[in-house]
Amino acid sequence: MQSLRDILNRIEAGQTSPAEALAASAARIAEREPAIQAFASRPDTLLPGTGPLAGIACGVKDIIDTADLPTGMGSAIYQDWRPKADAPIVMALKAAGATVAGKTHTTAFAFLDPAPTHNPHDQTASPGGSSAGSAAAVAAGMIPLALGTQTGGSVIRPAAYCGVAAIKPSYALMPTVGVKPFSWSLDTLGLMAARADDVGLALAAITKRPELDAPAVSLSGLRIGIDHQIYAGAAEPASEAALQRFADLATAAGAILVPHEGPSALAEAYQAHGPLQDYEATQALAWEYAHHRDALPPKLRAYLDMARATTPAQYDEARRVSRRGRDAARAFFREVDVVVSYAAPGEAPDTLGSTGDSRFNRLWTLLGVPCVTVPLMRGPRGLPASIQIIAAFGRDDHVIAVAKGLEKLVETHA
Amino acid sequence: MQSLRDILNRIEAGQTSPAEALAASAARIAEREPAIQAFASRPDTLLPGTGPLAGIACGVKDIIDTADLPTGMGSAIYQDWRPKADAPIVMALKAAGATVAGKTHTTAFAFLDPAPTHNPHDQTASPGGSSAGSAAAVAAGMIPLALGTQTGGSVIRPAAYCGVAAIKPSYALMPTVGVKPFSWSLDTLGLMAARADDVGLALAAITKRPELDAPAVSLSGLRIGIDHQIYAGAAEPASEAALQRFADLATAAGAILVPHEGPSALAEAYQAHGPLQDYEATQALAWEYAHHRDALPPKLRAYLDMARATTPAQYDEARRVSRRGRDAARAFFREVDVVVSYAAPGEAPDTLGSTGDSRFNRLWTLLGVPCVTVPLMRGPRGLPASIQIIAAFGRDDHVIAVAKGLEKLVETHA
Fold first, then answer.
1. What confidence tens digit (pLDDT) does each residue in B108-117 have?
2. For position B174, which CATH number holds?
3. What pTM was estimated for this model as a whole?
4. Shortest CA distance to A332 belongs to which of A231, A272, A262?
C-alpha cells in the first residue's frame, strides 16, 4: 500500500514531487485496475493541487457529487449523470491540495447489491460494501486515500475486509451535502488509507482541524471496554481471534481491559437502526422507487418494498430510542477511554455475491461516535481480520491517537 | 386567498372537481402573475393527481429539486439547471395528490438579495424572503399552498409580511434531501397557506401524520409565555401592536399570560445562530464561491467573504451552545403550553431592496421547534402585522391546534 505520510515526507525531503507521486499512483492504477475494478470513472490526467495534500491521489465514492466526472450512484438510472457542483467534501479535498484520482465503485445507492469490485487479497472474495472501490483501491496500492460513506457499516467493514485503515468520524464532522442520501440521520462520510497515521493526517488537512493529526498515545493505563455486542449475534472465529489478539497486545502494553456489555439502552438503540433507516430510505429514494423501480437491483428493490411499510410512529419511536442511546453513550464514555469491538463478523465473504454484514457497525453509526479500524492480522482463510476502536462523540482526535498507539504495537510485534 | 380546506370541501360536495380547482388556480395565476412575479417557472398545464390533496395547486420554492421543471436557486449560476430527481418533499406532495403549479422565486441561494417578487398588499413593499414567491403567490390568491424553507426566518417572515398563515415545523419533520443547503443544521422546510387550518390539513396529508390536522383548541386555561426576545433588539410599533392584540384576545378568551424572558441559555443560543450558519454556509456553497464568486449577488458575496473566517473552534462552540439551548427549551416548555412572540420586526419594508430581518425567527429555527404564524391585523401602513406561536420540539400538532384556536378568535372579533 501507499502511505500518504510517506509520500508527503518524500516530497518534503525533495525525493519526489507532487506530480511524480501522482504519476506513481496513475501507474499503479494502470497496472492493478483491470483485475480489481475499483473505479467507475477517472480523469484523463492527474494534476497536482496546492496545499498540505499536494501529490495525494484520492478516490471519491461514486455517490458523491463531482462537477467534472460523472456521478453514477452505482446504478444505471444515473448513468453518465453530471451534477452541477462538486460536493463540499470534494471542494475540501481539493482545497487541501489532493487530486481526485477517480470515482470509486459503490454498491447501487450504497445498499447491499455488490459492486463489480474484487478484494485485492483474493479476487474471489468480496471487498465488502458499500464503499467497495475505495477500500479495494487503497488496499491494492493504487491510491493512498479514499472517501467512503457509512450508513450501516459501509466504511469500516470494507476497510476491514480489504485490510486498510479507516475512520468513520463523528456524525457530520465532514458535511454530507452533495452526497446521495440513504438515511440522513445515519449517513456519514469516512476516510480510508494505509495506516491510522495516514487517516489522521488526511482528516486534519481536509477539515482544517490540526488536532486530528494526533500523536500516538500509549495504551498503558488506558481503560478499554471490550464489547462483544451480544445483541448483534456471535462473531466468527476470525473476528474473535482479532479481538483476542487486540486484548493480548493491549494487556501486554499495560491497558486496563474491562468487559463492556453496555447499558440496555444501547441494545435498544441497535434495534432502532432498522426502522430509522427504513423510514428515511423510503423517502430519500422516493423518486427512484416511483419512476425506476424495475431498474433497481434486487436487494435494494426488495428492501424498499419492505421498508415503505414503516410508519411515522415507528420512526418517531426509533428516534426517541436513538436519543436515549446517545445519552447512554455519553455516560459510559466517562467510564472508559475507548471501546473496542469487532470491525466485521469475520473475514471477507468468500463470494462476490455478498458484501458481508454490518451488524457490528450499525450501533456506532446510529450513535454518531467516531470509529477507527486498523489492519491487525490475518484470519484462517488468509484474509484480513480486524477490530474497531470507538470513542465518545467529538473525540475523533482521541480515537485516532489510540489507533496510532495500537498500530505501533502491531508493527512492533509483527 | 384560496383556502385549501374550502377547495377540498367543495370538491367533496361535488360543487367543483380537482381539474376545475386547478383551472381556477391557473386563471388566477394568469391574472395576477404579471404584477406579482411570484414564479420562476411553470408547467404548461396543471393535471390533477390522486389523493387527499387532489385539486390543490402548490408552489415549490426554486431551491427545491424538480425533475421536470428547472431549479434555478434564484441565481444565474443555475439558470436552466435540471436536477435528475424530484426532492422527496416534492414526491410526497405528489403522492398526496397535489399538483406542482410552478417553482416560486427565491432570493439567490435563499440568502438576502431580493427576488423579483412584489408584495401583493403593496407592490412597492417587500414580500420578505427568502421564500418570497411562495408567500406572495398564496397571498395573491394564485395558489392555495406553497413550500418554503427557513434557515433564519425565511418562512415565517415572508408569510407575516404577505399576510398568510405558515408553519416552520420541527426540524426535519419534512426531509430536506434535494433542497439546496445553506446551513444543514438550520435548514427547515415549511408550508404556507391561507389559514392555519389549511396549513395543518396540508402538513398532515404530506407527512401522512393525520394528528397534524389537529382540531382547534380553546385558549382558555392555556399557559402562554409572551416573549419580547429582548436579546434580539426592539420590535417596531406594528409588531408591538400585534403582540398586544394577541394578548388582548388571549386574555379575553381566558388564557393565562406569563411574561417569558427565557433562560440565559436562550439568549446565548440566539447568538450561536451566526457562527453556526457562517461555518456551514461556507462549506455548503464552496463550489459556487470558488468557481462563480463574481456571479453571486452582492449581499451573499459579501457574506461569504466574511463567513469563511469562521473557525472550527467557533463552530464547535456554537454547536455546544445550541445543544444547551435545546435542553433549556425542553425545560421551559414544561412550564408553558406555547410561547408567543413577534413574527417579524414590523410591517414589510417599504422597499424592494430589502427582504427584512429574521432576528425574531433565528432562535426558534436553531432550536428546531415548531412555529406557526397566522394573519392577525394590519399595521399603520396598512400592511399585515402578526405574531408567531411556538411549541416544544415535536409538538407540531399542538402549535397547529393553538393557532387554529387563535384564528377562530381573530375571525370572530374581525
1. 999 999 999 9
2. 3.90.1300.10
3. 0.98
4. A262
